[in-house]
Amino acid sequence: RTLNYAEIEQKSADLAAYLRHGLGLNPGDRVAIMLPNLLQYPIAVLGVQRADLVAVLVNPLYTPRELRHQLADSGAVVLIVLDNFGQVAAESLDGTAVKQVITTRVGDLLPWPKSVLVDLSLKYVKKVIPPFSIAGAVRWTSALAQGSRLPRVQAHAKAGDVAQLQYTGGTTGISKGAALSHTALMANVAACEQWMGRALDPDKEIGLVCLPIYHIAAYTNMLYAWTHGLHAVLITNPRDIPGLVAAFIQYRPSIFAGVNTLYDALLNSADFV
After folding, report:
1. For the residues of 186-251, what is the DSSP string, one character each?
2. Rounded to 5, what percent of the chain is helix, strand, coil?
3. pTM for this prediction
4. 273: confidence class by pLDDT, cuts 50, 70, 90
5. Is the pLDDT of residue 157 over 80?
6. 100 phi and psi, to 5 degrees?
7. Phi, psi of 111, deg, nearest 5
């Protein structure tokens, strides 16, 4: 499914209203986002930031120990998590400040009946959704529905205020949260503009977001796409090389960013020509 900018604006406003008015969060509170590259991601990030909250981007492949550390270290009070990782989340909440969990399914933003078929396949055929139980958890669809009935939130954050906590890879010790301001994120987009100029035509061209958005590189790609009104295609699992090649064939993207291992895998695929 493709979301247009009006839909993203409306749904992120609904989420912002739910977080501030429904949950009673205060400006500067931390909201952790534990999702792969799904349609929910841009809505979650924009909803958090337009509510003057701080986004904490979480690697969805974290173990319970790694997740517990990041939740506790960031002081996150809300966790938005995909059902596939719900069991890990359930094992990680003790000792953290999280008071509300919002759970979502892969199919939540897909049209019916595809949404139901996808979710049933993931749970009962592919068996990638382990059973879990989180007391008081709220469904993504319910959160947006409640937010749609609440007053709109007017953002008052200053450019120098913290927009998100970007956690390091932890290769030289425990993962550490780097505080990024709105200005820092805008500077990243400006750097992309210096590199590419305004060469991409938003009416014609498409970008593939292959790298996980919880990484700052892919996150910047998404911000650049928004800033220039581009059509960004989110690749949920870039390790699925046949699926990624199929996306190239289908969308004929003008630009994408990757890492050496991804480029190598594509170049060694017979179908990538």
Report:
1. HHHHHHHHHHHTT-S-TTT-EEEE-S-TTSHHHHHHHHHHHHTT-EEEE-S-TT-HHHHHHHHHHH
2. 45, 15, 40
3. 0.94
4. confident
5. yes
6. -145, 135
7. -75, 155
- Averaged pLDDT, 174-195: 92
CA distance 177 to 35: 18
Give the N- to C-terminal CA distance of the chain in Å, as an integer.
Answer: 26
Amino acid occupying residue 19? L
**Tokens standing for residue 59:** 């690697």
Contact present, 187 and 176 (Cβ < 8 Å):
no
Are 46 and 8 in contact by the 8 Å Cβ rule? The answer is: yes
Tokens 């958890």 correspond to what residue?
Answer: 137
Q: What whole-number distance in Å separates Cα of residue 135 and Cα of residue 218?
A: 33
Alpha helices in the chain (DSSP H): 5-17, 40-50, 64-74, 86-90, 114-120, 140-148, 182-196, 216-227, 241-251, 260-267
Asked if residues 273 and 246 have their Cβ atoms less than 8 Å apart, the reply is: no
In this structure, which amino acid lies at residue 171?
A: T
Dihedral of the alpha carbons of 22, 25, 27, 30, in degrees to the nearest 10: -120
- pLDDT above 90 (res 106): yes
Angstrom distance (rounded) from CA 249 to CA 233: 13
